[in-house]
Specification:
The complex is a heterodimer of chains A (about 475) and B (about 260). With about 475 residues, chain A is α+β, with helices and mostly antiparallel strands. Chain A folds into 5 domains: about 35 residues; about 130 residues, no CATH class; about 50 residues, no CATH class; about 90 residues, no CATH class; about 110 residues, no CATH class. Chain A contains 10 helices and 17 strands. By secondary structure, chain B is mainly α. Chain B is built from 8 helices and no strands. At the A-B interface, helix 5, strand 13 and helix 9 of A face helix 6 and helix 7 of B.
């Protein structure tokens, strides 16, 4: 009994397995058919689009799905409105400052997110995050930037069409700002679409797109909060006021004492200028040669020999002597041989704020001169004092700013008429509370760029 | 001075690369001669660097020199990966062209370097750009070849694949160059971006290649328009590189090369 039952059970089990096997087969067949059908549909769609392209049958505009025609039309509309604003509204668009920028910015961000999650299935949303719109948007932005790249971006007294449309101050014109705002919205949708649902393989996309979004968002909103002031400090004096571009003075939460200001200069150069115009004579290059002791060189068609050279000197009688007085200027004794073998000798000097310059006349048209030395390095030895009683000694130099009490302090300039004898150092003080966020975006974009470099394009095509 | 040695570099590189062209079927010798030719230029750059006491990255002539160095380097790397002989010799030809221009127009290799450029960001910023320009120039050569094929033969998919890859690499470098520049500017002057004419045109170039990448991603099977976009993007790149100095907007640029 038991054995026969066991036998039947085994039979049933066998049958069951064979049915299961058949079901799996059917399932497999079904899936492969499904795959084939899907492929066929794709092929047909591709053929259809090819057909449409070749027969130049065009989809009527405003019929879904929207593409390039609709994108460019919409963007053209936005531009028209922007230029209209530019013509009608006053030309001083006020920049947003704290806290309005934060409020408006977060509203925009929340609206983008809400719209994305509530309307993500709609056709309009898939248009707003589509590549044709992206490409059109980049092109329109590109056109605006090309205009900016051709026309000088300086405020002008004239009031022609260029000025009225804001072409001479593009970055603060309405059309530019509106296109950027639209870009921010579209880029937000695109980034959200690729981020949710999250897939690990999209990380390069996510970094580059969100990075760019953060840079535009934080950089754009933060520009109003950026404070950029200048401070003139004089040797051995204390200063705590700085001024803006309109020369309004502000008291700073720090004081700066300039202990010493120093400039290292390159040696001056030899150059040939036209006597009448004073302009550089450049028949052939090299047209300027740096002076060194004992230098022998060819300058244009002349052979020049530097016999004596002093970095600081003063004239006494018919020659210069080494001297380190206030205002002492470089001077050199040169010998010049022309192409016709005429030899000329004389002293040249570029002079300084209190000494005259001296040149050597080569012929009726041209003279040999010494150029004013270019700065190699300039730096201020300063002491910072903050209200909490702390003192800090620092050397400020170009490219080496220092942060004190939330302000970043840059070496900007000096009294260039006085040159190396300047006792004035001009500093720039910058406060930019949004900087960390912009840096975050920049670093995300860098990661995105490295991803691009690493992956290239091949994988996608080959697969 | 330094300049008088340049003719030797030009002659030896030309000679070595001509030998490589003659022996282009002998794999080992070809590579050896090409690498030797590149080494000559590299040695000259090192020599110049020591002589000038600063990296030779400032004047237009110096950037051309670096371009003439990196273009064959990248041509060689691309050759190792893709085995395109024409690509290799195109890059060598271009490099020689740049060396020739430098020979005809000797630059003033002055020692002065303004304080604003004395920064650790300077070398990466420019070198990354040189790489980007070299990749993108190579991609535009590929685009021209693609367009030729499109109109006179049938387009080889491999060509498109190579253009894409070169643009991806070049675009990555271009983005890094822009971002390094922005970080440097922030550290040195307190601005990320001042819309200096050179920056503006660099941004336009970036947008041009951005359009190409999106177009390719969107329509991987449509070639003609993408190839034209790529060719046009290179024109913009050339404007950015040489043309900016001649535009009315360029009067106060910090990026003008003497």
């Amino acid at each position: 009994m038991f054995h026969s039952y066991l036998g039947k059970a085994q039979q049933i089990d066998f049958l069951l397995h064979s049915y299961l096997g058949k079901a799996q087969q059917i399932d497999f067949l079904f899936h492969s058919y499904l795959g084939k059908v899907k492929n066929d549909i794709k092929k047909i769609e591709f053929q259809k689009s090819n057909y449409i392209r070749h027969m130049s049958i065009k989809k009527p505009i405003w019929q879904q799905p929207w593409g390039y025609a609709e994108s460019f039309t919409i963007l053209f509309g936005i531009l028209c409105i922007g230029f209209g604003f530019e013509l009608v509204l006053p030309q001083t668009p006020s920049t947003l400052v704290f806290p309005i920028n934060i409020i408006l910015g977060s509203c925009l961000f929340v609206l983008i997110i809400l719209y994305h999650f509530f309307f993500r299935k709609t056709k309009i949303h898939s248009f707003l995050s589509s590549i044709p719109l992206t490409i059109s948007l980049i092109s329109v932005l590109g056109i605006l930037v090309i205009i900016m790249g051709i026309l000088p971006q300086i405020p002008s007294g004239q009031n022609g069409l260029v000025q009225q449309l804001g072409f001479n101050q593009m970055t603060s014109s309405y059309p530019f700002l509106m296109i950027n705002l639209f870009l921010l919205i579209i880029l937000g949708f695109v980034s959200l679409k690729k981020t949710f649902p999250f897939k690990l393989k999209n990380w390069g996309f996510i970094f580059s797109h969100w990075g760019l979004w953060i840079v535009i968002f934080a950089g754009g909103l933060g520009s109003g909060d950026l404070r950029r002031l200048k401070m003139d400090v004089y040797e051995h004096k204390m200063e705590w006021r700085s001024y803006d571009e309109q020369n309004r003075y502000y008291e700073m939460p720090l004081a700066i004492k300039l202990n010493d200001f120093q400039i290292d200069e390159f040696n001056p150069k030899l150059a040939i200028v036209e006597n009448e115009s004073g302009e550089l004579y450049e028949a052939q290059k090299p047209s300027m040669i740096m002076i060194e002791k004992g230098l022998v060189c060819d300058l244009q068609t002349w052979k020049v020999k530097v016999e004596e050279f002093y970095v600081t000197s003063g004239r006494a009688g018919n020659r210069y002597y080494k001297l380190s007085d206030f205002g002492a200027a470089p001077a050199a004794k040169v010998q010049v041989i022309s192409a016709q073998n005429d030899t000329l000798k004389g002293w040249i000097s570029c002079g300084s704020f209190n000494r005259p310059h001296e040149s050597l006349k080569l012929n009726d048209e041209l003279s040999l001169v010494m150029t004013v030395p270019e700065p190699k390095r300039f730096y201020s030895d300063v002491t910072f004092m903050t209200p909490d009683g702390k003192k800090r000694d620092v050397v400020l130099e170009v490219n080496k700013p220092v942060t004190v009490n939330g302000w970043k302090i840059y070496q900007l300039s000096y009294d260039d008429k006085m040159g190396r004898y300047s006792d004035k150092s001009i500093l720039e003080l910058v406060r930019d509370p949004w900087q960390p966020y912009v840096y975050l975006g920049v670093f995300m974009m860098m990661i995105g760029a490295i991803y691009m470099f690493w992956k290239g394009r091949e994988a996608k095509i080959e697969s | 001075m330094i300049w008088s040695n340049f003719i030797f570099v030009l002659l030896s590189s030309t000679l070595l690369w001509l030998l490589a062209l003659v022996l282009y079927k002998k794999e080992l010798l070809k590579r050896l001669f090409i690498i030797l030719g590149i080494t000559c230029i590299g040695a000259f750059i090192v020599f110049l660097w020591i002589k000038l006491e600063r990296p030779p990255l400032r004047t237009l002539g110096e950037t051309r020199l670096l371009y003439a160095f990196f273009l064959p380097v990248i041509g060689m790397i691309t050759y190792m990966r893709w085995r395109y002989n024409w690509m290799l010799f195109y890059s060598l030809g271009l490099a020689l062209l740049f060396l020739g221009i430098n020979y005809i127009h000797p630059e003033n290799y002055s020692k002065t370097l303004m304080p604003a450029l004395q920064s650790p960001w300077f070398v990466p910023h420019v070198v990354v750009y040189i790489f980007a320009y070299a990749f993108l120039a190579a991609s535009s050569l590929v685009a021209v070849r693609g367009l030729y094929q499109h109109y006179y033969k049938s387009l080889d998919r491999k060509v498109m694949l190579m253009a894409d890859n070169l643009v991806y690499l070049g675009f990555a470098f271009l983005s890094l160059g822009l971002l390094f520049g922005a970080l440097w500017a922030k550290e040195a002057w307190g601005h990320y971006w001042t819309w200096d004419p050179k920056e503006t045109w660099a941004f336009i170039t970036w947008l041009g290649y951005l359009i190409y990448i999106h177009r390719r991603y969107h329509m991987p099977n449509v070639f003609k328009s993408s190839l034209w976009i790529l060719a046009l993007a290179f024109v913009i790149l050339l404007v950015c590189w040489f043309g900016v100095n001649y535009l009315p907007s360029a009067q106060f640029s910090v990026h003008t090369y003497s």
